Every structure is written in C-alpha cells, then in structure tokens.
C-alpha cells in the first residue's frame, strides 16, 4: 500500500502482475495512467486490451505513444498495474510520472509495460506492430529525461517561437536563426547529448508519429519548432557534428512524410535499398539487443521488403544476420556481397557468425569503384547493382539453400606453403616506379643494399621465394634496356656505385645461379646487349622486386603458394590455407581454410542439384571457411609492372583446378554442421 499526502494507492506488494495473451491480430495493450499532481507519488495504472482498428476508426478516442531511452535495465522501479506489482526501468518510471495529467486519465502506449518482455512470442507480435502503433497514436511524447533550470529556459524560449500552422507553414514574425545565440553550449551539453538521440528505435518512432512532442521534465514543446530553433541557427559556436544526428532525423522525417503523402508516381524502390542505407548510417546507435539494429528500422521500409524480414527474437544474432545476408545475396548478387565482406574485418565481429555472413553492425561502403563499375546513372550503388544483377544473374555461381552454408564455384590458385613476413623484406619505397630515377633515391638504394647484404634465415628464405616467383614472369617483348630507359638510367649515374655493389653481392647468390641454369630461354634474362647474362638477370630481378614492393601494402605479409605465385595476405593467413579466385570482382581473391565439418549426403545433394539447375559446373566437395578476402588480385603485380600485356590466370606455373568451395559456419551441434 502506497501513501502520499493523505492519498492511498492499493497495491498488493506480494502479487506480481501477470500478462494475459492478446487474441486479435492487431491487438495491443494500453496503459490507463491515473492522474496525480505529485511527482513523488508512485505510478498507478490499469492495463487494458485494445485493437489498432478501434483507434483508427474513432475520432473521439485516442492514445499517446511514449518514446524514451530504456537506460540501465538493472535499475528498476515498481509500479501498480491493476493493483499488482510490475517492475519497469527507472527511466520509464520517471517518464510516466512526468507525463501523467493531474486530473485526467491518459491512455499511453509504452513498450516497457505494454509488451510482455519476458515472453518472446508476445515480443515478436508486438514489435511487428510497432510501426502501426506509432502511426496510429494521435500524439507521441519523446521524453528526454529530467530537466534543469538552464534547460527550462531554453525550452521555454523555443516554445515561444511561432508555432507552425495547419499545413506545416510557419510564420515569419520570429526568426529561428538567432533564437539560441549564446545558448549553444546548453543545447549541446544538456539536451542533444541525451541518450534518446542515439537509441536505435527512436528514428522509427519519430518518423511514423503524427504529432511528436519533445519533453524535458515537465516542459513539453512540439517537434517542429524544437528542430527549427536548433538547426536554423547560424552561430559559429556550435561544435562540429553536434547537430548531425538531429539534422539526419529531421531530414529523414520530412522526406518520409512527403513521400508517403505524395500522389506522384515515385520510382519503385530497389529491395533493401533504404534498409541498407539506414543500417549503415545508424550502426553506432545504442541498442541492448543486436537484432534490433535490423528490427528497429523495418517500419521505415516498403511493405514488400518488410514481409521478407520476419521478426523472431528466438533466433540467434548469427541467424538473423545470416538471413539478412541471404536476402542481399538474392537482391544484389554475390559480387556485391563479396565486396562488402572484403571490408568486414572488424575485431568485434561475433565469432559465431559463419565466415560468409556479414556483420551488419560493421561499417560498409557500397560504391561503384569497389565493384569495378562506374556509376554514371545517378541511381546509387544499391539500385544500379540490383539492375545489373537482374541482367547478369550470377545466381548460378552460388547456392545458399543449406542453412549456414554458402556454396560457390571458383578457381583454385594454390595453397600457401610459406609466409613472408614484413621484416624479411626491404623497406617499402614510395613514388611511382616509372616516374622517377631510382638511383637518385639514396634511401631506397641504402635499404636495398642493406637487404641484399643480410644473411639471416628470414631474409634468405624470402629471397629464395622471390626469385622463384620472378622466374615465372614472362619476358618483355623487345629490348629491356629500351623499355626501361626512363626508370633505369646508366649505372654510371650518381648513386651507381652502390647499385653496382648490389649487383656484385647478388651475383654471388646461389639462388641466382640455380635460376639461370634452370632457365633455357635466354630472353628471360631481359635483354641482349652491353651487359652480361647474369647482370641482366639481376637487373631484371631488382626491377620486378621494386615494383612488387611499391604495390605491397604495409598492413600485411606476403605468402608463397605451391604454384610459385606470390600474394599479399593479412596477418591471419597461415600455411595450408587455399587461395581461390571466384571471378566476382576485378581485383579480389579469397583465402580459404579447410574445415573439419562434414556435409551430410542430403546437404551435398541439395547443393549439387542447385548448381546443376543453373548450369554450373560441379566437381569436388571441399569444405572451407573464409579466412580472408582481399582486394589485390593474384596477377595484379604482373599486370601493373607491365611484364606482359595479358597474363592468363592459367599460367604454366599455376595449376588450375575447378572446385566447389563450401564456406560454412564454425558452429557444430552434435558433430554435424547445422
């Protein structure tokens, strides 16, 4: 029993409120919030069932939707619901105390009370209705929290601005532009810094609301003058990006309202286009459940796309993210998804995610340059990719019919036999090789001289692998001396003495002698002219080595394959990994790690039939997980240093094998992959 100033609220402190099951398809629960003038008085309410249809078709009755930040879920308060006790968050308790009227019963919808948070089935049903709940409410109160004297003065000043008239037009007798001059710090530090502005659910709640109001403490003003007062200010005292979130919210709401009310024939949205944009712009919003990154935006997308994303809190985060990846594979194609996976290398990636599934909480950039096309249509990457995918249909390359597994056909380029660490290579040189005189770059010359003089095992191992790779590169057509005249001046030029010393040291390498003896084609030594046979070979070696170092990214080592190819890899690569090319992007390949999970006969049969249905070649059944996806193609070094105009992926030193690469989850259940 609660008492305050002579008032009595009867509450059975030993009884906990029990939710009843909702029957109707559009059924919701509404809080009948009892009036009270005293903020210190506990919250008393009654929870009654209703349907959205009742409120859509009734002009005399209405309810208010509440938008707020949950805050610390372990910090709870008890309220009286139908005379029973219900635990809610302290932030919701504060919101209900401040929003209640002193004489009227208010009908309120708030998720922390109106949804049975302990019942997954009820959560699934009610979250599906969230968009309709906020759009059907006559008002939405956005409760930011407790106020202060400084906040009250700013809120009162904004409320004094001319209110928008019916139709959304504003008067001009008060200028919004300088309304908050001198109060920028108060707005930034005490209002815009509130947790509500970074909560993931709030955009849907705001955008779908008919009449949103902002409330701080007991002070309440309409959304439009609140935004206009802050965003119209031209003051130079605002911190960069302090108003960015509010600006995005305001613009998105305006665009959404205009689009939904327009009778013009707008172009049909590409499936997933708006959702992808929202996921990227709002990935850093606060959320207690990672599933809500997707679920919280479904009310803002087209109905067709929304039906394809069922809300189910029984699914794991990995399952929800996998379902989304499958949809985008269907919409945009595997080429686009691989370009995104290349970027998905964050340390916070959940370990339970299958290696081919996107971590949707990561930052991606879906741009034409990454995907190998120039977007001159103005449609934007998702839209043009969708159109390209519909024309090309790379569906035959990939199968995702088996849960947790993506099967994709590609070319096996080789297996990593050895890792060449950064410390075993000369220091990376800068500048474009063909545009400067390397012999005038004393830093480069000294670095190279230091490297060829090393006799430690790490450097010796690296040079053996580099020589093996360079001997596989086809020779230039014509005279090497003519081809490289700009890049390789006369050795007698300044700096030539040290360069001659480098050649002298390398001429004593046994690997050089062995490579020369193993090579019968004299044109492999580069040119016939004034220089000797071994010297020609060494100059060619240095030239290609420098080109490799120019292209090499400092972020990771190189790896030598059993096919004598060199590839740049990440630090996660290890010996035994496979290197495959799926021909999905212009300059990418995959590092695959053999997986010990085994496909069942049923799973393998399903994949085989899927490939055969799309006229794809199906061969072996090797199971992998993606260890890495890289942007630099296997033959990129060959093309960039112009050794030949066109080097086929099927070079004589590259064993090519058609494979079916299965990229599974790393989860196991009872010895089977599920």
Describe this structure in a few short sentences.
This protein is α/β, with parallel strands linked by helices and 674 residues long.
Give the biggest beta sheet.
Answer: 10 strands, mixed
- Which word captures the global form? elongated
Helix content, binned percent: 25-40%
Low-confidence stretches: 3-10, 164-174, 263-267, 367-380, 431-436, 476-489, 525-530, 631-674
Q: Total strand count, please?
A: 20
Output the keywords.
about 675 residues, alpha/beta, 4 domains, five-stranded mixed barrel, 25 helices
What report would you give on this structure?
Strand 19 (622-630), helix 25 and strand 20 form a beta-alpha-beta unit. The protein is built from 25 helices and 20 strands. The longest helix is centred in the C-terminal third of the chain and has 19 residues, at 533-551. The relative contact order is 0.08. It has a ten-stranded mixed beta sheet with strand order 3-8-7-5-4-9-6-10-11-12. A five-stranded mixed barrel has the order 14-17-18-19-20. It has a two-stranded antiparallel sheet with strand order 1-2. It folds into four domains: 2-261, no CATH class; 273-392, no CATH class; 407-416 and 567-635 and 647-663, no CATH class; 422-551, no CATH class. The radius of gyration is 33 Å and the shape is elongated. The protein is 34% helix and 17% strand. The protein has 674 residues and is α/β, with parallel strands linked by helices. Helix 18 (442-452) packs parallel to helix 21 (496-506).
């Amino acid at each position: 029993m609660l008492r305050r100033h002579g008032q009595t609220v009867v509450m059975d402190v030993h009884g906990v409120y029990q939710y009843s099951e909702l029957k109707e398809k559009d059924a919701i629960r509404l809080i009948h919030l009892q009036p009270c003038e005293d903020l210190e008085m506990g919250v008393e309410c009654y929870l009654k069932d209703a349907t959205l249809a009742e409120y859509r078709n009734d002009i005399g009755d209405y309810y208010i939707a509440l938008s707020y930040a949950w805050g610390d879920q372990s910090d709870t308060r008890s309220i009286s619901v139908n005379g029973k006790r219900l635990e809610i968050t302290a932030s919701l308790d504060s919101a209900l105390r401040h929003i209640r009227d002193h004489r009227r019963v208010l009908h309120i919808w708030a998720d922390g009370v109106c949804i049975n948070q302990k019942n997954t089935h009820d959560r699934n049903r009610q979250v599906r209705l969230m968009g309709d709940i906020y759009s059907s409410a006559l008002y939405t109160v956005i409760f930011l929290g407790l106020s202060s004297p400084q906040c009250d003065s700013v809120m009162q000043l904004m409320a004094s601005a001319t209110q928008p008239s019916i139709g959304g037009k504003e008067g001009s007798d008060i200028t919004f532009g300088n309304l908050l001059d001198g109060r920028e710090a108060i707005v930034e530090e005490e209002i815009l810094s509130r947790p509500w502005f970074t909560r993931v659910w709030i955009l849907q709640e705001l955008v779908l609301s008919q009449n949103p109001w902002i409330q701080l403490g007991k002070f309440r003003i309409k959304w439009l003058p609140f935004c206009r007062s802050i965003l119209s200010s031209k003051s130079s005292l605002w911190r960069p990006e302090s108003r960015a979130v509010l600006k995005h919210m305001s613009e998105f709401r305006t665009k959404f309202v205009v689009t939904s009310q327009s009778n013009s024939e707008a172009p049909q949205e590409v499936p997933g286009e708006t959702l992808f944009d929202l996921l990227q712009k709002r990935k850093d919003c606060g959320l207690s459940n990672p599933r809500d990154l997707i679920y919280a935006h479904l009310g803002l997308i087209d109905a067709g796309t929304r039906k394809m994303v069922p809300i189910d809190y029984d699914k794991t985060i990995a399952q929800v993210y996998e379902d989304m990846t499958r949809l985008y594979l269907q919409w945009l194609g595997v080429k686009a998804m691989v370009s995104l996976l290349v970027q998905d290398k964050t340390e916070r990636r959940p370990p339970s995610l299958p290696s081919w599934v996107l971590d949707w909480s990561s930052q991606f950039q879906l741009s034409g340059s990454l995907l190998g096309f120039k977007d001159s249509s103005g449609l934007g990457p998702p839209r043009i990719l969708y159109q390209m995918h519909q024309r090309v249909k790379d569906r035959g390359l990939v199968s995702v019919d088996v849960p947790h597994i993506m099967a994709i056909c590609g070319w096996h380029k080789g297996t990593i036999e050895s890792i060449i660490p950064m410390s075993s290579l000369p220091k990376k040189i800068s500048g474009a090789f063909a545009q400067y005189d390397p012999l005038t770059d004393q830093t480069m010359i000294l670095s190279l001289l230091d490297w060829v003089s090393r006799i430690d095992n790490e450097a010796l191992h690296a040079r053996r692998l580099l020589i093996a790779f360079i001997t596989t590169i086809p020779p230039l057509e014509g005279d090497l001396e003519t081809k490289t005249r700009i890049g390789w001046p006369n050795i007698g030029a300044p700096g030539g003495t040290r360069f001659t010393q480098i050649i002298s040291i390398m001429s004593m390498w046994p690997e050089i002698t062995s490579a020369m003896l193993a090579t019968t084609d004299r044109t492999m030594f580069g040119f016939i002219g004034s220089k000797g046979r071994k010297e020609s070979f060494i100059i060619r070696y240095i030239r290609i080595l420098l080109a490799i170092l120019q292209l090499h990214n400092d972020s990771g080592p190189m790896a030598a394959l059993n096919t004598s190819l060199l590839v740049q890899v990440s630090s996660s690569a290890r010996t035994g990994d496979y290197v495959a090319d799926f021909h999905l992007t212009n300059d990418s390949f995959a590092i695959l790690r053999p997986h010990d999970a085994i496909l069942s006969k049923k799973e393998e049969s399903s994949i085989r039939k899927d490939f055969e249905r799309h006229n794809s070649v199906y061969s072996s059944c090797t199971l992998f997980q993606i260890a890495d996806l890289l942007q630099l193609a296997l033959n990129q070094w060959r093309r960039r240093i112009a050794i030949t105009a066109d080097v086929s992926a099927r070079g004589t030193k590259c064993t090519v094998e058609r494979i079916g690469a299965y990229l599974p989850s790393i989860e196991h259940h009872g010895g089977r992959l599920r």
